[in-house]
Amino acid sequence: MPRSKSEEKRNPIEPESMKKAIKLLLDPQRSGEEKLAKNYLKRHSAEGGLAIRKPEKTSLSCATSFNKTNIDRFYDNFYDAHKHFGLFGIKIRLGESETMTEAMDLVLEDEDDGTDLLGKRVYVLVGFSKKSRPPVQYVGEIIFKDQYYFEYQIQFYKRIGNGSKFVKEPEQVFDVIKENIVVKLPSPVELSGLARTERQFWFQVDFPGFNVK
Asked: pLDDT at position 73, please?
């Protein structure tokens, strides 16, 4: 029996796609988290956020599931963050139990992005002169950093024998430019000293290929 016009007005026939959308959003079995996530994506997509969509059935250059404008925006924000805060991924492969050979893979500074890993309370290996044969290096701790001129005030340590233990030399504090820093070291293990002995610091690395004093 055909419906009257008044009934059609009260109960308009929705398109099939609209019915599916309503069922998806109002399904009582869907969790609250899923609803929030869907609302979030819907809202931020409308605001120009990162939108994921179905690839077009065209050439490969056009078939993308990402909004290119927002990808560009992401990288712009990424580089702005680096410019102000130095936030970039760094190749760090140095652990406290690894050898100095592996430590040489550590990147102190990537000239392309200007990232600096050196700061206060960081231990480094310093070489003052490259003319001496063989070159001599010293272990030290950065106690002050000049943010503008990349100069560092370093407290130096004296090596005990040929091992990996060092003692602090209170009078040996010097200013060092960044070019003289050879490599960053892991923090040492502090060994308690006795009343008649100096407090020792044990660096859990080897020093092959270095003439460390």
From this structure: 72
